[in-house]
Amino acid sequence: MSLVIQKYGGTSVAGVEDIRRVAARVAECARAGNSVAVVVSARGKTTDELLATAHELSPSPPKRELDMLMTIGEQESIALLAITLNAMAVPAVSLTGAQVGILTDQEHGKAKVQTVATERIRKELDNGHVVVVAGFQGVTLENEITTLGRGGSDATAVALAAVLRADVCEIYSDVDGVYTADPRVVEHARKIPVITYDEMMELASLGAQVLQNRAVQFAKRYSVPLHVRSSFNNTEGTMVVENYENMEEIFVSGAALDEDEVKMTLRGVPDEPGIAARVFGAIAEKNINVDMIVQNVSDEGKTDVTFTVSNDDLSDAKRLTEEISSDIGAEGVHFDSGVAKISVVGVGMRSHSGVAQKMFQALADNGVNIQMISTSEIKISCLIGEDTGKKALKAVHDAFGLGGKQA
Amino acid sequence: MSLVIQKYGGTSVAGVEDIRRVAARVAECARAGNSVAVVVSARGKTTDELLATAHELSPSPPKRELDMLMTIGEQESIALLAITLNAMAVPAVSLTGAQVGILTDQEHGKAKVQTVATERIRKELDNGHVVVVAGFQGVTLENEITTLGRGGSDATAVALAAVLRADVCEIYSDVDGVYTADPRVVEHARKIPVITYDEMMELASLGAQVLQNRAVQFAKRYSVPLHVRSSFNNTEGTMVVENYENMEEIFVSGAALDEDEVKMTLRGVPDEPGIAARVFGAIAEKNINVDMIVQNVSDEGKTDVTFTVSNDDLSDAKRLTEEISSDIGAEGVHFDSGVAKISVVGVGMRSHSGVAQKMFQALADNGVNIQMISTSEIKISCLIGEDTGKKALKAVHDAFGLGGKQA
Fold first, then answer.
1. ipTM at complex level
2. Which residue of chain A comes nearest to B60, CA vs CA?
3. Which CATH architecture describes the domain B3-174?
4. Which of A73, A266, B40, B242 gets the highest tally of CB atoms within 10 A of its CB?
């Protein structure tokens, strides 16, 4: 008997018929003799609608109260799925994050999971129940309700799979796997059958919105095998694993475009030791994730420091960066949200030279100007103008022969 | 400084503008220097919509899962009201039933409050916060989410007022007080300025749906002064108190119609000692409230036992009564949901004779046939055909001169 964790996204449980389809799939897995725990997100547009109402009532709703509001979306989903499973004669019980015991820190809106209790879930599984768990939510030691931030339901699923030592964690959504590029932009993008945690993490953080980065990190740390697949069909999706055969032969696995970044530049920063640490220390303290960082060469004792953050953090980051600017005696701050980040990812890159050059050439040939460059062992990213993003993605995808037709 | 508990019903927080109006009223009370705890129900039709979706997915959803589903309605309301209050610069914090510590038994769908913790609320009030509490919901010792049953938000408000020793518990809804009869049926019904707990309890249980019976019982036991009023205007409503001046002069305070009853008859029951105890013991065990009970005189060692239950309990009561019928060797069970109960209530009744006769005469004069009669010290109820209900209410209201114009 296997223990299977399944996670269904919001579009998979949007309508009554969708919930029935998900329930049928869960029932099939349970009837095959598996122990099953299911993690679900809020239905369809629920979260967006709740947010819109909150903003109608307040320009800046307290994050604690937003978490109180948002978490009802998942609570609705788990109750309705448990009701449907019971109607199909599959004994099921729904549990909120608090009831499971998903303990987080107090960072409302993007809390981090600290521990996950297993007692209650184990008891229900041992009693032959399918356990339906609310994704995205947790609870602090003081019994305050928190949310795990964007894509937090993936984190919930992987955390459960890790503490319960599940045999597989299946991530269901409306896409049937990880692609060499976003198929909505690049027509002949190809589904990747197997990919490493490292590659997946780079792709996730780079805008291939299939799986949340944190969830993949967690899966890597606890060696949880992930299966990314569609809830609308039965085709095999993408397996995410530690490593696979012939890793070095495929030197670029995929290309991704992230249009959700903002470029912030601190101008005329005094070029002294410790300045970067002060700037990014203050930003980290506020739990704002910085992505790319570039510091230009010094000119007459002054330098420009440029970095990118997510659009979500813009207002916080803006206020903070302006404070920092005057603290450190910089000349001012400049913001630009008209940017996009284009990246290629592949573990094989480590042992192949010329990948960066090939990417830059493809962008140049298509008239795409590069504003910033950042590289890691398995990734190369370029910040470009937002209006050239889609063109750049197609160009890079073609240049590395990632498409189904060229392969 | 006074401690005020305010409770707002679902229609008071239905739309965004309604929530703003309620917030303004709460803010006014807080700015006047009072400590304020607010209890809110689910918005408008939310509960009905959630129930409808649940029933689309299952013919008989498990009660535990229905509670999981229903409680999101109040959680939405408290978050939105707290967000609005904070936007008005009134520091406010929302709390679920579980966070307050409203401990109940395990009877999902109609749980009874066992204890209410005061620590968390006191802490928030001491910090100068308005506390916004989710009505209708509680939590068991095992951390299971429960609901208190119909009108449970009133029970939440009164329980809080009792444990916090509040100066007043204001119950806001879309009606501005308790009337001598339902103004939608009886045009010249009159608002009652002051009424006793006992009268209010009889009126509540008899279908004047302004306040839940249990809430009034609780208020009486802990001497919580209730003020029933409208959230749409500032007029004084009805005060519910232990007693008032000249109580005996007003011998009938109001008349009520309950169209939500079902009549059940056990036919041919063996006329032996202990039969009634067995029948109603079994029903009470299942937590089904029986209202009127009538046993006819015995005929050849057999008798008929008739009683009424709420429509909500019909399917449970039906199954159970059929079991009981075969257990005790009765001849069968007969159901009739085409009935209504007409009642008059008044503490003055104790010292006035002829009230019953006057009521029966009024019904007779209007061609209303009486099927069952039941009386208490301060109430007379008659079960009649549902189609004659509204006519009967008007007739009785007129006969006792309860209307504004006759008074």
1. 0.77
2. A87
3. 3-Layer(aba) Sandwich (3.40)
4. B40
